[in-house]
Amino acid sequence: AFKAAVLIQRWYRRYIARLEMRRRCTWRIFQSIEYACEQDQIKLHNFFSYLMDHFTPSSSKERDFISRMFVSGESFKEAELEKYCDYESMEVPDSYTGPHLSFPLLPDHATALLEAFKQKQQLHARYVLNLLHETRKHLKQLPNISHISTCYSEEVTVCGDLHGQLDDLFLIFYKNGLPSPSKSYVFNGDFVDRGKQSLEILIVLFTFLLIYPKEVHLNRGNHEDHMVNLRYGFAKEVMQKYKVHGKKILKMIQNVFCWLPLATLIDQKVLIIHGGISDTTDLDMLEKIQRNKFISVLRGKKRKESNRNVEIQEINGESKVEADSAGNEAAPSLSLEPRPAQAPSTANRLEFSRWVRQTVQEQIEWCRRLVDISESEEEELTYSSVVSLTDLDGPCWTCQEEWKQILDILWSDPMPQEGCRANTVRGGGCYFGPDVTGKILEKYNLQFLIRSHECKQEGYEFCHNRKVLTIFSASNYYEIGSNRGAYVKLGPDLVPHFVQYQANKTAHTLTMTQRQGFILALISRVEESAFRALREKLFAHTSALISTFKAYDKDNTGRITLSNWATAVESVLNLGLPWRMLRPQLVRSTADGMLEYKSWLDDLAMEQRSQEHIQSSLLEVIYRNRSNLETIFRIIDRDHSGLISFEEFHQTWKLFSSHMNIELTDDGINDLVRSIDFNKDGNIDFNEFLEAFRLVKQSQ
């Protein structure tokens, strides 16, 4: 009996160990793909910045388009925003059966909202805009770092990322209670994106913020950013739910986000920030930054605005850069303006191009002197910056140090190694080690940091000798059963107490035996979902994989070793995954340890091929670039209508073709736009936009 018990125990431990290994591998796959996607977002932004730096508009129309699209026009003046988002002119019809709001808000309004959202009801656009208007007024009165004390409430509850998962917020309130004078909450950013009910979460949080302004505190996360929202679903969600007034709601939310506080300090001892810190983090500077200037941190590195209005005018077919005084007074420094030499004939394109570059460079140097930018700065004042200076009503240029302060606290992650280095995995922020944490804690006399930003399997995790706590509140983040959510409660002793949960309605109704089977089924489901995503990623890089495999296949046998397969796949995807361990799930076993890589890639293509008979190479390109193309489409679609005009399409393709060295005449672009406008409505939707890239790929 004793031997049997030991045997069963060994079998059970081995089984649990294998399950844990499967769980960790699955986790690594999900996280690697998520961070690679975030890296793509940064690269896309850098791509547009590069285009702006190397593209010279040939007409005022092109200049206006680019300035509106990629540089300026992000923010309204105060009066313009109020007029644009005028909610008082909207009437609520008698047929409306949803909740009603009146200001100032009362606890009953919050309760009614929660019940309405549980019943899948929608708040009328008038009330949404009114709520956003009042929230914005309140946030503008708050400091960059909120200071709260446990003396005024029994405890403070800190919640991490929610990412549009309303069920998790309901579960937190069910377990912990609603915000009240005796129950304070800190919500640590990333309220939106990925989930399907981001707007409802914002409405609930903003409602409680206005009812209990001293007990509810909101920090900004890296997803409270308009450029990020274009990629990860929040902008699309708002436009789908509010087709008539969605543009106004998005514009107001964009403005509200930039007024969110950057951090919260509990009892002057516990610092709560969304991402992390760096070796240059300065809380004193963070306190003084004009945070509303940073509508999108990804737009970053804004420079000081000139007190001159630099205009690029087209006169008789020749580009001329002129500086115009901001007022009618003549400035003494005006004489410093360089006078452009006589333009050569436009018939000699090479000579004319050199003249334009020289003239623009002279104006750049002049603008640098005007705005007092030193030659030693890392970033040059580029053409895009000169164009930006034309918008005197836009946000003032802020120094790179301030931008980096905000970028670091929103995007950074801790690492076990000492030091501080660039966060190349996400593409933004930095990795900070325990030594950096120790210095910041000592400098500001803090006990520990609370941050979010990273999904954790148990919902929370300590690191850096328990001096950094990560809290993540969105359960089932990657897939149902992938992770728990958690929140942490701090009393006057500042000792953290954790509550974990998993928002899954099915599991609560099962018996213990049924629950065990359910858990095993969940693990298999999560694992299959991860490998399906990984196979899609592999398929999207088919061409690069073939080239790399051929480098290992010196004799052109069509076969490589499994070890070389693992090395080649990592060199192409750069996901940092244990490919040898994952191989049995991705490659059928072979007796001689060799892989016929062409047939393996054909199998991948068969899995991914859609019902439409699209050529495999074209499908690969679309798989690899779909997220980027969708983000580009939404950037071009400034009014979020889901359609872009022929003119916007025309100017965008001129921008792309100049970068890709594709000779496309105006007539050629017009022919292309007419050929992809399948329904002949004079506009282009996203599917038609994809068709344009497919046609160009075919022609190449």
Provide an overview of this structure.
It is a single chain. This protein is an alpha/beta fold and 700 residues long. It has three domains: 1-55 and 514-611, Recoverin, domain 1; 98-300 and 397-501, Metallo-dependent phosphatases (Purple Acid Phosphatase, chain A, domain 2, 4-Layer Sandwich); 616-696, EF-hand (Recoverin, domain 1, Orthogonal Bundle). Helices cover 48% and strands 12% of the residues. The strands form six sheets. The chain has a six-stranded mixed β-sheet. A five-stranded mixed β-sheet has the order 4-3-2-15-16, covered by helices on one side. The longest helix is centred in the first third of the chain and has 53 residues, at 2-54. The model is unreliable at 301-340, 366-397 and 610-618 (pLDDT under 50).
Short structural summary:
It comes from Balearica regulorum gibbericeps (East African grey crowned-crane). The protein is 48% helix and 12% strand.
Q: What would you report as the Rg, rounded to the nearest angstrom?
A: 28 Å
Number of strands: 20
Task: Assign the CATH topology of the largest domain.
Answer: Purple Acid Phosphatase, chain A, domain 2
CATH homologous superfamily annotation of the largest domain: Metallo-dependent phosphatases
User: What is the helix content?
Assistant: 40-55%
Please, how many helices? 24
Q: Average pLDDT across residues?
A: 78
Q: How are the strands ordered across the major sheet? A: 1-5-6-12-14-13
CATH class of the largest domain: Alpha Beta
How much β-strand is present in the residues? 5-15%
Distance between the termini: 73 Å
Uncertain segments are 301-340, 366-397, 610-618
